[in-house]
Amino acid sequence: NTLRFDYDNDFCLPGCSLPHMIPTEEGFNQSAQQLVLNNVDLIVVYDKSGTLAAPRAWWMFKAMGHDNVRVLNGGLPAWLE
C-alpha cells in the first residue's frame, strides 16, 4: 500500500517558528497512528525532488523507533525514469 503524507503538516512540531522541527514523541505517534503506520511496517520514503525531504523523514522515523525505514534512491524522479 502507498500512503502520502505532508511532512510539514503531519510530522513537524506544530506552532514552532523554526521549519521542519521534529515533533514530540506523542505528536509523532498520533500522526503515525492516523496513517496506520506501526514499527513492523516497511516504510519507504521519497520526495518529488529526489533528495530533500526524504532523508529528513527517514531520520525522524528512525529517531522515533522505526527500524524498517528506507529512502528511495533518487526519489520519485528516478523511480519514474
TrEMBL record:
Span of domain Rhodanese: 23-81
Alphabetical list of Gene3D superfamilies matching this protein: Rhodanese-like domain
One GO MF term attached to the UniProt entry: thiosulfate-cyanide sulfurtransferase activity
Keywords, comma-separated and alphabetical: Repeat, Transferase
InterPro entries: Rhodanese-like_dom, Rhodanese-like_dom_sf, TST/MPST-like
Domain of life per record: Bacteria
Keyword Transferase: yes
Protein's recorded name: Sulfurtransferase
Organism: Vibrio parahaemolyticus
